[in-house]
Specification:
With 201 residues, this protein is mainly alpha-helical. The protein contains nine helices and no strands. It folds into two domains: 16-58, Homeodomain-like (Arc Repressor Mutant, subunit A); 66-195, Tetracycline Repressor, domain 2, CATH 1.10.357.10. 72% of the residues lie in helices and 0% in strands.
Length: 201
């Protein structure tokens, strides 16, 4: 039987409650301490569980971080189904902007991207998170192709990359404002490129 870490909170239970507590603790650790200082021990202590509980569910620190951040992004940036590609892309872009400019989004992006320069493992975690978002967003493009809005063979990943690239440029490089009009322009460009057949495989 596991003993709780000294100073930890009361037991959080099993299954989903434990998972939720650990992922929430991981996000708080990222925001407050950064990737370099994040440890499974600190996450477990904050979540009120033993570290072996964490290791039973996640093989390593990077897997834990990917799940924690991907879940948060998935909740804050849901995959839309409005019936039209342009409005789907606009909804995605606006949700991304809301998340990225929130306190949480700014903290997560700053932590992950600044540490990625110094720490190879977090660069891999970033790549895995982006691939997860591409996978989740794929149906948006596939449905549009089925409706005949865009040519068959349009590559979903290319559409999403074109959508988020100008947003990331402003957020991470130029420091220009990022708001709904900017999100709408990015969505319009990505939609027109897809409709014109420029993003085919």
């Amino acid at each position: 039987m596991e003993s709780r870490p000294s100073g930890s909170k009361s037991p959080v239970g099993r299954g989903k409650k434990v998972r939720d507590a650990v992922l929430a603790a991981t996000r708080r650790e990222l925001r407050e301490a950064g990737y370099a200082a994040l440890s499974v021990e600190n996450v477990a202590r904050r979540a009120g569980v033993h570290k072996t509980t964490v290791y039973r569910r996640w093989n390593d620190r990077e897997s834990l971080i990917v799940d924690a951040v991907s879940e948060e992004i998935g909740e804050d940036i849901p995959i839309p189904d409005t019936g039209a590609l342009e409005s789907d892309l606009r909804s995605l872009a606006r949700a991304f902007v809301r998340w990225a400019t929130s306190d949480t989004g700014r903290a997560v992006l700053a932590t992950l991207l600044s540490d990625a320069v110094r720490i190879p493992e977090i660069a891999e975690a970033n790549s895995r998170m982006f691939q997860d978002r591409l996978r989740r967003a794929r149906p948006v493009v596939e449905r549009a192709a089925e409706r005949g809005e865009i040519p068959p063979g349009t590559v979903p990943g290319e559409v999403i990359r074109m959508l988020v690239a100008p947003l990331y440029l402003r957020l991470l490089v130029t420091g220009e404002p990022v708001d709904e009009p900017v999100a709408d322009r990015a969505a319009s460009v990505a939609w027109r490129a897809a409709a014109a057949g420029w993003l085919n495989g």
